[in-house]
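Researcher: Re-running this chain for the archive, since the previous output was lost when a drive failed. Same request as before.
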Amino acid sequence: MCFHVDIKYPNRQRAEKPITCYKVLLYNNLRSEYYSFYNLYKYKLNSLYTSFLEEPDREFNRNRIDRLLPPIINRGIHSYSTLDSAKKFIGEDAIFKVSVLVKCTIPEGAEYYYNSGYKEYVSDKIIIGDVMHYKK
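Model: Regenerated structure tokens:
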């Protein structure tokens, strides 16, 4: 999944305090395991994860016809800043019926980018919290 850098927040930020966020994960009920959507990375609840947070690819649009697209980041831990934005991702498709919402935290000191339009973060650290129960 690629993250589009917001022109309002083009620079890497450091969390001055813990930031609440949300992830949508796939749930394998046969194994009681949780996975990310795009890379099928395995997560355990109530655990800290770290990732390389790459710099935005600011050369991405240099040779493209449509140079209005923002720079992108391909590596980092993606999450949503609001519960509503995470719920919108789930949708009605069959694959999403095995998905769960997980309340997470970007810990103090973690580095991240924020996109205000999509209400998403990409960060180098995240604490995967507990599954949230909600009505679609």
